[in-house]
Write a structure and sequence with these properties.
This protein has 465 residues and is an alpha/beta fold. It has a domain of 219 residues: 3-Layer(aba) Sandwich (Rossmann fold). Helix content is 42%, strand content 15%. Helix 3 crosses helix 4 and helix 5 crosses helix 9. The two termini are 34 Å apart. The structure holds pyridoxal-5'-phosphate (PLP) and ligand LJ64HWYM. The site of the ligand N[C@@H](CCOP(=O)(O)O)C(=O)O has 13 residues, from helix 6.
């Protein structure tokens, strides 16, 4: 299987090269040239598989022989070995036909662990085989950073540089990143917002000449295809547990960079019967405005109580647009060019196609805290702020009460004690035992100006030999 760029001008790459390349040389994102498709009988035969065995079935066709089955299986086993729940992604019912998929049972308490523990182990394998050293550069609004750091800290061939917006991630999120003192881990608090961090990372991928000795950058953000690929698995896993393929399932997904929900879209294209994909946004609602009013225009970023979704430019939306425009790379190049000036308008046919599966909802902070309180009062279940937005979006937007709706619980509430307190909870939600000493650990990070030269100089000056 080859991987092609959404902008049509970059060379097609093998799986391994696509994983190592991150952003395509034409500024696009890599996607598989064709998607594997599974028929109903095949999907039905997976009922009851463990998460790890299901991951093997789903990931195998994408890697196209780059790893043997036993290599892939070993990487998968290792990646999910430190999850706290034996089901890896347990489903919890919170109402009739309404479920929460707990994607926060990994080491850093967010859904990012599903793909980033896998990506860390995959990179370790590929780089050792190639005897190659790389610099990982990533942007985080709080969760990708710690998952990537835990995924990569042990890799001898990786120096990892994570940019987070200074003062705009929760204290738990910051400490999770900055208390990892391994010499190959570098945290940069950028005096800017998440979009600034992401722009800087993307600009650095486009021109890597600041790196000495031909060192290559590798992406841990969801621009890296392997991130999306690993996230497809839990859509199948949850739907199978609820009766797929014999009955459809809907998903409500707290959305920022559009990677998570895009994995759900791919699951549906690969044969999973999905009735609705609900895009749940906070006040940074560009995707909601786009789907509901064809208004895809940038607005100033708002700092919300769901900080991980404080994102205006959603990288992976481009991957969806590529499909909506008939996989026409030139059309996507033109559209992205239009968006670089602040807004873009989708064609009527592209929007109509998107609306066949997607709908959207926006929830501001005051409503989000109300949802946390309501669900807790009714069920005793404590939602994190991002998940609460997804739960409310599901309630407002689902069109069929008989179809189970799965709300992706993207983070553990203990990562966001301020929001939880605002919802009327007297006590901070407890951190899991393995993080009990988080507030006593030494931190290490550098604060840098929002200037690309400052960041690139820092990266170039902190590479190991
Ligand atoms: C807790 C949490 N929820 C939701 C999201 C949004 O996911 P995505 O960026 O894949 O849309 C993120 C970050 O991306 C997150 O960290
Ligand atoms: N919410 C994310 C933002 C980065 O998204 P990614 O999925 O592209 O890595 C975060 O927590 O950092």
């Amino acid at each position: 299987m080859k991987y092609i760029s959404t902008r049509g001008q970059a060379p097609a790459l093998s799986f391994e090269d696509a994983v190592l390349t991150g952003l395509a040389s034409d500024g696009g994102l890599y996607v598989p040239e064709t998607l594997p498709k599974f028929d109903s009988a095949t999907i039905a035969s997976w009922a009851g598989l463990s998460y790890q065995d299901l991951a093997l079935e789903i990931i195998k066709p994408f890697i196209d022989g780059a790893l043997t089955d036993s290599e892939l299986s070993a990487i998968i086993e290792k990646s999910y070995s430190n999850f706290r729940h034996p089901a890896i992604a347990p489903l919890v019912q919170i109402d009739r036909n309404e479920w929460v998929l707990e994607l926060f049972q990994g080491p850093t308490l967010a859904f990012k662990d599903f793909a980033l523990q896998f990506l860390g182990n995959l990179l370790d394998h590929i780089l050792a085989k190639r005897n190659q050293k790389v610099a990982v550069m990533g942007a985080t609004s709080g969760d990708t950073g710690s998952a990537a750091i835990v995924g990569c800290a042990q890799c001898e061939n990786i120096d990892i540089f994570i940019l987070h917006p200074h003062g705009r991630v929760s204290e738990v999120q910051r400490r999770q990143m900055t208390s990892v003192l391994a010499p190959n881990v570098h945290n940069i608090a950028l005096k800017g917002n998440f979009d600034d961090c992401q722009n800087m990372v993307k600009a650095s991928f486009s021109d890597q000449s600041f790196l000495p000795d031909g060192r290559q950058l590798v992406a841990v953000n969801s621009i890296n295809w392997a991130r999306i690929m690993a996230q497809i698995v839990y859509y199948f896993y949850a739907a199978l547990a609820l009766g797929a393929p014999h009955r459809p399932v809907s998903f409500s997904v707290p959305t920022g960079n559009f990677g998570d929900i895009f994995a759900g879209y791919l699951a549906s294209k690969m044969g999973l019967p999905v009735e609705q994909l609900i895009i749940a946004t906070n006040a940074n609602d560009i995707l909601h405005r786009c789907i509901s009013d064809n208004d895809h225009s940038k607005k100033p970023l708002i700092h919300s109580l769901s900080p991980s979704m404080d994102i205006m430019v959603s990288s992976n939306f481009e991957r969806l647009l590529f499909d909506l425009y008939g996989r026409d790379g030139d059309a996507i190049s033109t559209l992205m060019q239009e968006f670089s000036s602040g807004s873009m308008t989708l064609s009527e046919s592209a929007l109509a196609k998107a609306r066949e599966l997607f709908c959207s909802h926006r929830l501001a902070d005051e409503d989000m805290v109300r949802v946390i309180a309501e669900v807790f009062d009714k069920t005793g279940y404590l939602l994190d702020p991002h998940t609460a937005i997804g739960v409310e979006a599901a309630r407002v937007k689902r069109k069929n009460q008989e179809t189970p709706v799965v709300c992706l619980a993207t983070a553990h509430p203990a990562k966001f004690p301020d929001a939880v307190k605002r919802a009327g909870q007297a006590k901070d939600p407890a951190l899991p035992a393995h993080m009990a000493d988080l507030f006593e650990l030494e931190e290490r990070y550098v604060v840098l100006e929002n200037a690309i030269n400052a960041v690139q100089q820092y990266v170039a000056g902190h590479l190991s030999n």
